[in-house]
Structures are given as structure tokens and as C-alpha cells.
Amino acid sequence: MPGNILLKHLKNGFMDSFKSIQRLPSNLINQIAAGEVVERPSSVVKELAENALDAGATVIEVTLREGGKTYISVTDNGHGMTKENLSLSVERHATSKLPDQDLFKIQTLGFRGEALPSIGAISRVSITTKTEEDDTGWRLAVEAGKIVAPQPVPYQTGTKIEVSDLFFAVPARLKFLKTARTETQHVTDVLNRLALSAPHVTFRLVADQKEVFSYAPVLEKEKLERVHDVLGHDFKENALLVEKERDGYRLEGYISLPTLNRSNAHLQYLFVNGRPVKDRLLFSAVRAAYHDFLAHDRHPLLCLYLTVPPRLIDVNVHPAKTEVRFQDTQFVRNLMVSTLKESLQKMGHHASSTVAAETLNAFQTYATPSFPRSSTTQGTQSTFSSYFSPQKREMAPSLSTTAVGVCEAVPQTTQEIKEHYPLGAATAHLHENYIVAQTEDGLVIVDQHAAHERIVYEKMKKDLATQQIKRQVLLIPETIDLPEDEFHALIQSVEELSRFGLILESFGKSTLIVREVPAILGHADIKSLIKDMAEVFQAGDKSLKIEEKINEICATMACHGSVRSGRRLSLSEMNDLLREMEETPHAGQCNHGRPTYVELKLKDIEKLFGRR
Q: What is the number of alpha carbons within 13 Å of residue 255 lying toward its C-beta?
């Protein structure tokens, strides 16, 4: 058959198969809808638990078998359903949650009217319910989309929905499910989010006859207790309060100190008008607020509640209702960023209490200490005396006076330390990087490079804001060769970098000349600084706003301009650094979110030696 005839034949056959439009059967429609709404057992639990909350439940109990693959039940004490409403609840696009039929006035968690018919299309569902006014309860069954009429049964006020053999009607979906343990963890996460959105409700989860958690109800003003239940003791001990109201928008909740962070954003809980969401705009605002304090691969812990006028938000943009659309995205982002930064400003020089706990856990104790003997033992006493007595050592060169102030008198008594010096008085310098200071009720160990890096960084930002960056002309300009892509990325920002006191000129195809540098950098390695900045600019996040980009430049410069590890400090220099830390915002962590100091209380040290 000639090629053109074959092509025509195939085309006609293809068109024949689509020559008429057919109406899909309702069961197939429900199965398609289930593909959007029901991804795994946790999707079922989310939909049913949200319905329970909308029904006014104050107690919600969830039971799973095999991670929910074979059995899920959600029981609540809400207002229940009448026989008529029960029948309507398993029909598509039937809902009681849009009384005014206004999609921009949604004040409930569920509203699409797809959950129950979608779940019933792919599994076996039993719904038992009773209202307070009815004399009897009613039970309705759905199996693979086939509905069995309601039957009267004895039951208490509320609703119990049981889902068995999830995806038995569409077995291809079963292969995408994970282990029972993984599916249970997904359910736990869903219920944790709902528990945080409704702290006045009791939540209980039982998996394979073992209780996973049981959260007691708390008052709205005691919301931190529910947050404590979900995020743990460490978060409660290191949480900063967030509160702000502006133009009808309200943001409240709790965020962690930067030094309490994780490698992922799993413990970030965000709520909009009481609805748990995973919204990219809000996560982006959180990253921007912490940009000054954390490395790009570290994430804070938080629980934030944003209240928005209903008409200024669209919650009907995602099948699972996990994303929202704001009418004024820029306002929301600015509100989030500025409010979180305000709260972070209040932390002063404090670091997370978990730093000390992790330090204590790292210590090893020995009942019978054993030390190796050597021929140099005789000189040990004099060596240690010299090393741990800073006033006997040769004085190190002074720190840059642009970064560290004039030394005050070293406190001699515990009372002086208590009244004036939260970070204590320096007593020793270890391994040419760590300052040991005595506090009122313990000791502090400071990482000199990390601490000075934060001090220089904050001073650079302050000088930049007041346009007081001082420049230092290099007697011999530095000439630096760079890869072409990094050269072009850096040369495009020459004018911007001049604001920081960094004067660059191009010289040839991929060579830069550095003529002036910020005076605060002192004797920093300029070549290393420029190469690091070129890498940052070439691989940087193009979505960063100008302020965030400026902070990134300051952070890179501060790292190169701070006191290096390996630099021995005199006693006065160590105390200078401690005093500057006490006066510097956010001095509890370096620019990458690592702690700058560890504080150990005397009672904890005594425990190590069996004194407590």
C-alpha cells in the first residue's frame, strides 16, 4: 500500500474512534475525581477529619490498620447528619458549606463536595451517623460507587466513617503506596497539622492497636501547649512569639531561634484562616526572613497562623486545598517577612538551649580515668599553667578597632558578672579558637571566628544603611583572574559593590583589578574574597530581592573580615569580643545559623561529675 494511502487510512481510523462525544458514567467520573483528591490513606484521613471539624466536633479519633491500606475509621462527636443529608453526602457536588453559594466567602475546611463520593468510588465505605434531634442513627454503605440505602441503627450523636480496602476498585493505584510505617507517618503529619489548627479539639490516633498520640484540648490563649505536643519540648524552650495586625490581616504564632533548625522544612506548619496549607509564597517569605541567619540548606521550625479577609483570598485553587491564592501577594509577603524579622530582632545574643544539651550529651565520663604516660610528663604542669593563664602569654596583635571596642575592666566577682556581663569574663583560650568565660552560674565557650563574623556582618549592614562604609585604598592593587562566567556575573554588579567600599575594574577578557576595599575587612585575603563572591554571584538565587542580595554580599565579606581560627587572643581581646557580642543583634549565631557559643550551667557540669 502506497505511503500516502496508508496515512489516509490510519487518519480515518483515528477520526472514527473520536467521531462522537460520550457522557462518562458517574462511577468513572468519581474514580477520576478520586485520582485528584485521594492520593494515599492520609488523603482520606485529611478529608474526613476536616469534615468532622466542620461538623463542630470536639473529639476526633482515627484508627488505622496497615497504614490505612486495609482499614481507616474516623469517629467524631459532631452534630451528625439526618437520613436525607446522609444520602446527599455521597453524591458529587453536594455540600452544606456554601449556604450563600459564594466561592469567595468560604469559612470551612471542606466545601468541594467530592471527598465522600470519590472515596466511595475506589473502596468500601460505611457511614454511621446521628443528630441530637433524631431518635435513631442511620448507616449507609458504598462499595466501588454502588450506594446501599440508609438503614436505621442505634448510635450516639456524631459520625463514624469506616473505609476498607482502599483502592480495591482501582488496583493499579495500590503499587504507589509505601510501607505501613511510611503511610502511618503521612497520616500522623496530616493530623498534627489539623491538631495545630484546632487546639480546642481532642485528637487521638491508633495504628495497628497501638496509640501513636493523644492530644488533650487546650484554650486558645494556651496554644503553645498544643504546639509543644506536636513540635516537642525543644521548640517550646526556644520559641519566639509572633504577633502583628495590619489592614485587616493578622499574623500570629511561634518561630524558632535560628540555631534550632533542621535539614528540611518538615516541621514548618502554616495556616491560613484556620486551614493547613503548604503554600510556596509563604515558604518563600519564611526563607527571606531567615536569610540573614541560616544557610540555604537549613530550615527553622515554626507554627504560624495568618488570618485574611475571606474576600481577599481564593482557597479553591487546589484539589486537596493545600494551596491558596492571595489577592495582594506582595502585601502578604512583606507582612510575613517584616513581622518575622521583628521577632528575630528580640532574641539578642541568645542561642538555642539545645546547643548546651547536645554539648552535654557529647561528653564522656569515666569511672577510672587512664592517661598515657610519656617522658615529657615532668614538664606538663608548667606548660599547662602557661597555656591557661592568658596574662602570662605574649600579647597577640589587637583586633580591628572598627569591629571590637575598647576593653573595659575585667569583672572579678560573680556579682559583677551577674549585673553587667551575661556572657561572663574570659578565663582561657583553647586550641587558638575557643574562648572560655566564667558566667554567674556556669561557663560559656565561644567560637571566636563565628562570633566575630556576626559582629562584622551586623556592623557592615549598619554602616551601609547610614552610608558610612569607609574605604581603604590598596597601595598595590590586586589582580585576579576568574572563569569567564564568574567574571561576567561579578562585573555586572560593579556599581552595586562600590556601595560596600569594594572598587573593581575589568582588565582584559576575564581579569579584575581590586583598587579599594572596605576598611572593616582589615588584612583579609582579598583574592579569596573576590573568588568566593564571584561564585556566589554566578550560582546565586536570581529571585533574591535587592535587600536579600545585599545581605548575602555582607555575609561573604564578613566571613573574610573576621578573626580567623588559629589566631591567639590576649585576655583583653577576648573580653572585648564578649562585650561586643552582648551588644550585637543576633550574636547567638553566625551568618550560617551555627551557634557562636555554648553555655553550660553549673548544675549540669556537676551532674557530669556525679555531684547531683
A: 29
- Which residue, among 27, 7, 37, has the nearest Cα to 321 in the 3D structure? 37
Strand 59-65 relative to strand 202-207: parallel, antiparallel, unpaired? parallel
In the numeric block, the cell 495545630 is attached to: 196
Instruction: Look at residue 311 in the predicted model and tell me its pLDDT.
Output: 85
CB atoms within 10 A of CB 30: 26
- 18 exposure class (CB count in 10 Å sphere: 0-12, 13-18, 19+): exposed
Mean pLDDT on 531-542: 71
> What is the number of H-type helices and E-type strands within the chain?
20, 24
Residue-wise pLDDT for 502-536, tens only, equals 889 888 888 989 998 888 776 777 888 788 778 77
- As a whole number of angstroms, the distance between CA 519 and CA 475 comes to 13
Between helices 448-465 and 546-561, what is the axis angle to 10°? Answer: 140
Band of pLDDT at residue 10, cut at 50, 70 and 90: low
Site of grid cell 560596600: 500
CATH of the domain at 562: 3.30.1370.100
Considering the domain boundaries, does residue 123 fall inside one? yes
Residues 114 and 261 grouped into a single domain: no
Say which amino acid occupies 587.
A
Cα(367)–Cα(513) distance, rounded to whole angstroms?
61
| For residue 356, pLDDT beyond 90 | no
Domain that holds residue 79: 26-215
Residue 470 C-beta-side C-alpha neighbours within 13 Å: 8
76 CB contacts (<8 Å, ≥6 apart)? 52, 55, 57, 59, 60, 61, 158, 159, 160
Segment holding 214, helix H or strand E: strand 210-215
CA separation for the pair 99, 324 (Å, rounded): 21
CATH number of the CATH domain containing 136: 3.30.565.10
What is the pLDDT at residue 107? 54
